[in-house]
């Protein structure tokens, strides 16, 4: 028997869970909504598990930024504020045999003097400083913005590692996320011997005192009760009737799952939509645990050397009380064999390719005309931290409910 649902939410990660609770906050009754989650536990990429006696975040490194009060107030309803520790971010980059604070451009003063001079000379000659036209190629953009030294030592090898693809297939439209540090600020920091510019996301962050980051999403899922159906992957989609798995017929579908699942579950997608979904690119990440304690105060460390397989270390002993060791994130295409704990994330990062904006916009416009709404990292095919995912889900719930 088919069950009719007004709001059917595909995916019980941060976006889907927030959307569901936001509907309840807006007066929608529980029997008008349902969340389908493929895994046995809610939380998506933000889930945690116990490894070597302490929590480990299986999706990589996840932390709660403190900038959005409405997001904090929302999440504190499920995991109260007193159950979180607050940290001032310590992020490092390993370069030239040293640990340098991130962002690199604002902390060149930490290098030996000769290295500082090399970096400064390189930055002074960049196209962005000299007023040259901004290039469209990803590789040339990095050199134009940051100079040959930072490009060759850090940005290009790091991006080759994380994406494992030809970097000129990437667009430049997303690079506004890079820290914006001017040459003047960089020079001043070297002269004064202190950091310059502004920190990127997570300058101050929260992490649970007694749990992994997945705890808040686990509690959000539990609070939905029977309105969250776990272990329920999407196996069939009838577009004509908006029926999922031959069981749930929706008035509106909110999808936070990768669009590739729509290809697998539906053979009647319009050909142009199928082709645009096929153009979307993602990378898979392996998360590996190492029990050795690192002699560092860093919360996470970026590793650009292409001689090392992983691109980032999360030093859990510095933010997860009672734990030891660290875990690494590595593009699955670069992973080495391991005998220890490994969690494979098939869908980890959406990739900002040249074609992505046009493809995802085409998909979302088509979907909306069919009362299907893309939400979150996978619905919008955009890398977003969990606080952004929560904020956008709250806003979308308001928008859709206001439409009736």
CATH fold type of the largest domain: FAD/NAD(P)-binding domain
Q: Report Rg.
A: 22 Å
Give the CA-CA distance, first to last residue: 26 Å
CATH superfamily of the largest domain: FAD/NAD(P)-binding domain
Count of discrete alpha- or pi-helical segments spanning 4 or more residues: 13
Overall mean pLDDT: 94
- The rough form would be described as globular
- Strand portion: 15-25%
Structural category is: alpha/beta
The count of domains is 2
Assembly annotation: single chain
Residue ranges: pLDDT <50 for 5 or more in a row? none
What share of the residues lie within helices?
25-40%
- DSSP strand count: 19
CATH class of the largest domain: Alpha Beta
Task: Please provide a written account of the structure.
This protein has helices spanning 14-25, 69-76, 113-124, 127-130, 138-146, 148-163, 183-192, 214-223, 260-265, 271-279, 356-369, 376-379, 386-402, and strands at residues 3-10, 33-36, 48-51, 54-57, 64-65, 84-88, 91-95, 98-101, 204-208, 228-229, 237-238, 243-244, 248-255, 282-290, 300-302, 312-314, 326-331, 342-350, 372-374. By secondary structure, it is an alpha/beta fold. The longest helix is centred in the C-terminal third of the chain and has 17 residues, at 386-402. The mean pLDDT is 94.
């Amino acid at each position: 028997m088919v069950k009719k649902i007004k709001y059917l939410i595909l995916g019980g990660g941060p976006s889907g869970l927030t959307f569901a609770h936001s509907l309840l906050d807006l007066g929608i009754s529980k029997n008008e909504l349902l969340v389908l989650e493929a895994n046995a536990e809610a939380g998506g990429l933000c889930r945690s598990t116990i490894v070597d006696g302490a929590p480990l975040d299986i999706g990589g490194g996840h932390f709660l930024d403190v900038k959005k009060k409405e997001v904090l107030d929302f999440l504190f309803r499920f995991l109260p504020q007193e159950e979180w520790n607050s940290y001032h971010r310590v992020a490092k980059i390993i370069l030239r045999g040293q640990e340098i604070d991130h962002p690199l451009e604002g902390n060149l003063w930490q290098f030996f003097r000769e290295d500082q001079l090399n970096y400064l000379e390189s930055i002074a000659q960049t196209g962005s400083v000299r007023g040259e036209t901004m290039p469209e190629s990803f590789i040339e953009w990095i050199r134009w913005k940051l100079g040959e030294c930072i490009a060759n030592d850090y940005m290009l090898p790091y991006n080759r590692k994380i994406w494992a693809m030809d970097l000129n297939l990437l667009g430049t439209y997303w690079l506004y996320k890079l820290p914006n540090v001017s040459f003047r600020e960089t020079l001043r920091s070297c002269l004064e011997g202190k950091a310059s510019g502004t920190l990127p996301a997570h300058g101050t962050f929260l992490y649970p005192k007694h749990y992994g980051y997945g705890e808040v999403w686990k509690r959000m899922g539990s609070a939905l009760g029977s309105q969250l159906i776990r272990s329920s992957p999407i196996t069939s989609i009838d577009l004509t009737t908006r029926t999922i798995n031959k069981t749930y017929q929706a008035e509106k579908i909110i999808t936070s799952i990768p669009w590739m699942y729509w290809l697998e579950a539906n053979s009647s997608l319009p050909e142009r939509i199928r082709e645009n979904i096929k153009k979307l690119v993602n990378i898979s990440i392996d998360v590996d645990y190492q029990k050795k304690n690192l002699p560092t105060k860093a919360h996470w460390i970026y590793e650009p050397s292409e001689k090392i397989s992983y691109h980032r270390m999360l030093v859990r002993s510095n933010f997860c009380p009672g734990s030891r060791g660290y875990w690494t994130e590595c593009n699955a295409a670069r992973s080495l064999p391991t005998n220890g704990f490994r969690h494979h994330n098939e869908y980890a990062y959406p990739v900002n390719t040249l074609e992505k904006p046009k493809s995802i916009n085409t998909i979302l416009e088509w979907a909306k005309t069919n009362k299907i709404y893309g939400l979150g990292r996978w619905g919008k095919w955009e890398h977003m931290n969990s606080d952004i995912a929560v904020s956008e889900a709250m806003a979308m719930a308001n928008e859709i409910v206001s439409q009736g």
